[in-house]
From TrEMBL:
InterPro entries: CBS_dom (IPR000644), CBS_dom_sf (IPR046342), CBSX3_CBS_dom (IPR044725), Diverse_CBS-Domain (IPR051257)
The protein's name: Inosine-5-monophosphate dehydrogenase
Pfam families reported in the protein's UniProt record: CBS
SUPFAM superfamilies for the chain: CBS-domain pair
Residue ranges of every copy of the CBS domain listed in the record: 6-67, 76-131
SMART domains: CBS
Keywords per UniProt: CBS domain
Highest taxon, organism lineage: Bacteria
Amino acid sequence: MTVRAMLKGKSGGVITIRPESSLRDAIALLSQRRIGAVVVSGDGEKVDGILSERDLVHAMHSHGTSLLDRQVKEIMTKDVITCAPEMALTQVMETMTRGRFRHLPVLENGKLIGIVSIGDAVKSRLSELESETTQLRAYIAGG
């Protein structure tokens, strides 16, 4: 299965936040949308960074509650690893595991078209394995 196929199963567009937004607003967005990370983008197409719950926890530990009035661009992860829609699910999972992160923005021709979480990848992989198992059982039973 490819990232493109995975994205077809997801609803809605990509949620982004502007680099100048406050971290207070970012936390509200993550909470309201029930997501673990948000792509930081000034124009909604280019990836300027990514802000995850982990980024917020580390920054809160260092700066305390004064952090809430700072801007997203101050603590976001700037060097974002991305993937292409043609990338295989197994490659996505390997990339996330190796990099120790749980969200991967998807770019096509330099434009943001989606984001894949480790939860999306696991759900898709389990569905894929279930389908293969069903096909093998049908083959063996018909055999």
